[in-house]
Amino acid sequence: MESLIKYYPLYFIFSVWSSLVLAGSDPYLSPLPILSDAQGSWLYVGEKTANRIARISPTTGKPQKHYALPSPPNGLAISNEGKKLYVTVEEPDGRVYVLDTESGEILQELKTGHTPMAPTLGPNEKILYICNRFNNNVAAIDLASGKTIATIPTVREPVAMALTRDGRFLFVANHLPTGAANVDYITSIITVIDTEKQSVVKNIPLPNGAIDLRELTLSPDGKYLYVPSIFARFLVPTTQIERGWINTHALNIIDVHRQKLLHTVLLDDIDRGAANPWGVACSPDHAYILVAHSATHEISIIDRAALMNKLAALPEHDTSQKFEDRADNPMNNLSFLYDIRRRIPLKGNGPRNLVVLKNRAYITEYFSDSIGVVALDPAIKNNVRSVPLGPHKPQDTLRKGEMYFNDAALCFQQWQSCSTCHPDVRTDAVNWDLLNDGIGNPKSTKSLLFSHVTPPSMITGIRPNAEAGVRAGIRHIQFMAPNEEKALAIDAFLKALRPIPSPHLVEGQLSESAQRGKVIFEAATGCIHCHSGKYYTNLQKHDVGTGTERELGVEFDTPTLIEVWRTAPYLYDGRAATLKEVFQTFNPNNRHGHTSQLSEPELDDLVEYVLSL
To answer: For the chain, which domains are there?
Structure first.
């Protein structure tokens, strides 16, 4: 319990995505969400690590006002008349702040769930919908009373929403897939919520390997939903990286009326990846679809009409596996967008979200503390600029390490960054057949939290420490010779990470169920013998009987249990979708703790305790 008390306040220093609020009165800004008012008169930008909102003139790109906040902003919505701004901030005890756009005064404070995101105003602006990311639900808040009137479960980590033009349906992007990882089909889900019934009416699976969703947007005519994603090719061993062998990146197109996935189109080129797509937007006339590539520091500008014509010309097909494997399927065709898409390099670093006003795109550039401005007309010369949001501040080692971790420049042909497989420095919920220990034995992606203080590294402990793991990852996963200066910066960044308080805590404390589970953990099951100390690991390897026939007798590294609530699925190959399965289904002969004698309520208490760490 001491560790819970110790780390809980640090959440307000280290944000959900581990962007650092550094000491001193002049922090980095880290612009993330951006939107405009309905008239296009102002842009509003959430400066995440500065805990403030900037109001910007689209003409000059320069801040005109700043509004201070108590916590890092991650989402924005604005009233139709432009007088109220709704801001979600990253807190375990979530808050939405309603600001007066002229004075910056906080007019209302709405309480919601763990890490609220993506505020979305309902019809007539009577209801505000919020993604409570780590509660895995969407909350409907009545703005008149400030009360939550409905809580609608989603799949896993809802991070973005779009409301249909008639206000009837909410489409919700779930960041990561759920379920076991030792299967052939893994994907993130788009949840569809009926706003009249306040319930889920459909879950739309994306293609196999579509993960790490960040944003989505509706087309101006309301007919299509555009959803960028990473496209993990996890079914093959990581023996090469060319031609998207390990990861490609895609734009998923959903038919809104039929609530059905229509197409998935690759955003990469044959010899150059378009790593880690994030923001997505349409031009007001729907002439273009724009996607920001956060790891390659560019945007894609896609000719929408040409894209739809090209898709319409494809042969008729169904969604069978046979068509998925065919080269004429745009989800496998690295040249599909060749003549209908422009890749525009930005002058800033780390693009995140974007908005389009008239003939210009405005993009938040996270690591350069700037706004990118791109003219959409290809005839305009010098059509890209980057406008600083404040005085230049030299990057220290931690900031550089975070930037390198998210930068595909460290990878051959820019196919991926460290954060591609470790989004938010945690897990992608997918198994990968890495070459560390041979071929044919895929293993689950580990969270990197506390990796540098809990050696050895990797699931089988094949690397002596995380320092060796970082350099091996650059060499064998990104297929580049490690740059020691950059590797040291990544080490520093990873060492500075701190956990986020569990959503299972009650006002920062263990629930009554978790307190009972703590006793069971320490006395009845023997879990404490291996998962002990400050980090809940004895830093040893053990054979706990969970290896498959091929891995019989293999010893696995004892992982930290801190923040285990966030890292499903479990066991080395992700076979356990839940912790209860770890204790109840996949614990032969009680070798992984003495749990077979526990009653159902005792198992529930044990799970609750571990999920609270």
So the answer is: 158-296+298-345 (2.130.10.10), 400-495 (1.10.760.10), 512-611 (1.10.760.10)
Neighbours of 181 (CB within 10 A): 26
Write out pLDDT tens, residues 47-106.
Answer: 999 999 999 999 888 899 999 999 999 999 999 999 999 999 999 999 999 999 999 999
State how far the Cα of 206 lies from the Cα of 264, in Å rounded to an integer. Answer: 8
Bond preceding residue 601 cis, omega within 30 of 0? no
Give the chain's end-to-end CA distance (angstroms, integer).
8
Q: Work out the pLDDT band at 16, boundaries 50, 70, 90.
A: very low
Residue bearing the bigger pLDDT, 588 or 454: 454
In the numeric block, which tokens belong to residue 236?
């093959």
pTM for this prediction: 0.94
Q: Give the single-character DSSP code of 498.
A: -
Preceding omega of 456 cis (within 30 degrees of 0): yes
Report in angstroms the alpha-carbon separations of 99 from 40, 64, 176, 551.
18, 16, 31, 57
Q: Rounded to whole angstroms, how far apart are CA atoms 351 and 366?
A: 6
Q: How is residue 522 annotated by DSSP? A: I
Residue with tokens 């998210």, as numbered in its chain: 406
CA dist., res. 575 & res. 442, Å (int): 11
